[in-house]
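Sample pair:
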Amino acid sequence: MRIALVTEYYFPHLGGVTEHVYNLALELQRHGHPTIVVTANMERPARCADLDHDAGEHEFVRRVGTSRTIYSAGSFARITTGIGLRRALRELFRRERIDIVHVHGGLNPTLGLVAPEAADDLGLPVVATFHSWFAHSTLCRVFRTPLQRRLDRHAANLAVSRPVVEAHARYFDADWEIVPNGVDTDFFRAGPPADAGARSGLLFLGRLDPRNGLDTVFAALPRVLARHPEARLTVAGDGPLRPVYERLARPLGSAVRFVGRVNGDRPGHYAGADLYLCPTTQASFGVTLLEAMACETPMVISDITGFRELIAGGREAVLVPKSRPEAWADAIVALLDDRSRRVEMGAAGRRKAETYAWPRIAEQVTAVYRRVVH
């Protein structure tokens, strides 16, 4: 099969959808399925550090239109703009002799809607994967009828987790199938720290985005330092709000260091941490949780809908109420005081991560492809 993976989010944008599409493309090609990634043209961020994956454009990437960043639902999102996008996609699918179009971000503007229309023009089956969770959606409510019609034309509708299904099922009817995110367990594994001379103690890794809750960790840190004055927090990530977070961190002095965007050396950052902190307030799954678990790094994470499904009874992580600095401080201190528990959590995390290895996930996806094509 010749496959087109269509996504608004791809390198140089870093995030869970980007990782999902990139790794799925590699795995499909390993199994003999010629695969292209279709996305938009994006500006390379001004501040980049160690971006191994997107140091050069992958030969299987095709770009149409221009990606624009917008603020939506408390976070930053992307949409593709351009004249004649449907025609450009239709010609691309024809030129590449595509057999199946797999849209990531089903029903999302712009590519999530235009790419299926272009596929329909050529009689190609469309598979859509839904990655997002939300408590409510005005757009889904207002445009429910036309979006349902689009959904009905998909050959298959996949979701990365049960919470994603529940969010969309409030507005739409579909035969949902769950195919989760995966993790590269060869790349993410226990190993030497990224900076052997600066063990971080505590790690935050993610976009500097209001929904990711870094301010909660900053608020918790003084109580942690009162018990563990040697503790240090590494903030790995970037975003438009980085200057805001740097100002928030100033009162904490040398206890916080910002290392900017990271990608290729993420395993080293996880390995250099005693605890990975994920205070996200809204998520559909938790790709970074899988990465940390694969590296045997114990975690303190938000007790939110998108994370509970992945974490089994606290064996791999401690779940803490979101946006509660005192509770976060108590959980962090308790784990820093208990090395044996951290070791047990790391081992449990590795076992869990192996069940999400990309070869397993890709086989689930290709089974869907075979069904809708044949």
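DSSP finds 14 helices and 14 strands in the chain.
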